[in-house]
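Worked example (supplementary).
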Amino acid sequence: MATSCIRVFADAAHIEHSKQRLAAAAPGLEAVAAVLALAGNDVRLKMLYLLLDQQQLCVCDLADVLQMNVSAISQHLRKLKDGGVVQARKVGQTVFYTLTPALRPVIEPLLGSVSISLTPAAV
Amino acid sequence: MATSCIRVFADAAHIEHSKQRLAAAAPGLEAVAAVLALAGNDVRLKMLYLLLDQQQLCVCDLADVLQMNVSAISQHLRKLKDGGVVQARKVGQTVFYTLTPALRPVIEPLLGSVSISLTPAAV
DNA sequence: TTCTTATTTAAGCAAACGCTTAAATAAGAA
DNA sequence: TTCTTATTTAAGCGTTTGCTTAAATAAGAA
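After joint prediction of all chains, the assembly is encoded as:
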């Protein structure tokens, strides 16, 4: 795809530099976008919020607290698990979910903004 | 919706406590989820990445760097603007976009994880 | 074994998403 | 004014999302 604009001050060098930087960062950015997409859902973010201080919760607990269909909760948990955000541990017939330790430092800051509250503009 | 499970160790008090905590945090969580949903898209996260160190970029620049249709870029910018993540400033016929200053401290940590790179599990 | 419970999975469906194309605005240049 | 450029908007369309219902697993209890 050629340049989309005709700008006199196109600053081709600058554009090229940005392209390079972006190309280098792209894989990391895409990985981050994947977990942000998982967290960028009301229900799932609430799950992460609950898991962050409860260590572990079973499907049932989450369904109760979120007042949602067990099946819907299970499907959200599957996505979180597939994304590596959450881990499952089966005890008897109940399955306990935990935040993946490695991702905990990534998730925590996402929820930090909750306490400091967002600016009205973003709400 | 009644409790969805029959658990003996239901720990009703615990569940109730979680519900309370969640109810208190819900508005904040939903606001955060909204911006995470915006950032949780490959193209938009790349835009934010570029805007984070370029101060300002026009639609055209972004289209060039991301090698995408100007219209598609414009539509992404509209979402970011509606979400308060980005601001527009018109100069002549070109529109420059900037990260909303207030949201900058929220966006920056999202991209911080790029440099420290994610664990293989999350990728 | 049969019965009950906890969870997952499959199917269906309406809504949201993200892109493309084409038309509509807006603003400078001739 | 007309022409060109930068951006936005509208319409269309295929894909994805998130829920519901119902069926399928899995595991303990009787």
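Two points are worth noting when inspecting this output. The CA atoms of residues 109 and 115 of chain A lie 11 Å apart. The first strand of chain A starts at residue 56 and ends at 58.
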